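hi! just following up on the protien thing from before. the input was this:
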Amino acid sequence: MLNVIVTGGSRGLGLAIARTLASAGYRVIALSRSLGPELEAACELARTQALGAIEFRACDLSEVGQIAPLVRGIRADFGPIYGLVNNAGLGTAGILATMRDKDIERLIRLNTVSPIVLTKYVARGMMTERTGRIVNISSIVASTGYTGLSVYSATKASLVGFTRSLARELGRARHHRECRWHRASIDTAMTEELTPSQREQIVRRSALKRMADADDVARSVEFLLGAGARNITGIVLTVDAGNTA
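and the predicted 3d structure came back as:
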């Protein structure tokens, strides 16, 4: 059974990815600060279905010093790591001129520094195994911009450059690096604060006249981890129902 780490796996998009991958036969190691009831139920369901599996490991990824021992522990418990999905992130909004410095630092630490450091330690094992897939979850605001999301947009744009450079850096070791974009037009818990009119506006400007949901992204992650994506690397795949078409 191939092992895939999914960060932010306790709810929303991360939980949808974990469920989809487990159903496809992967062993998912879901990272989150705590085991919520939805993730606990998903772990139990995966056990009863006897296809893949979902295992939980508690970790606050903003504590960068915890990442190296975390990866060592996962390898010791489950064996080689085949896949990494860097999904965890903060969506804190705020006008730059009035944002507190500590909030800026927190956003950058969790959204940029943590996935880069986690990738560093996971990729070392992949280089030894000469196989592996890494999917970084970004956002369309990395290229379109959005009022009140300047810092968040910067962190997500950084993942795009990171992905493309890493694809070349590790390509000779036959690793695959993909980048997936998502944003508030993905229908998850992160969009609950949108008003009905805001959601309708997103639907109107989308080519398919609907919102993409977490399962749409999860199925795309499954594709990128599979054999059908063996020649796909360093790309940006947009899953937004044509919102940016």
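The mean pLDDT is 86.
The CA atoms of residues 52 and 90 lie 29 Å apart.
cheers
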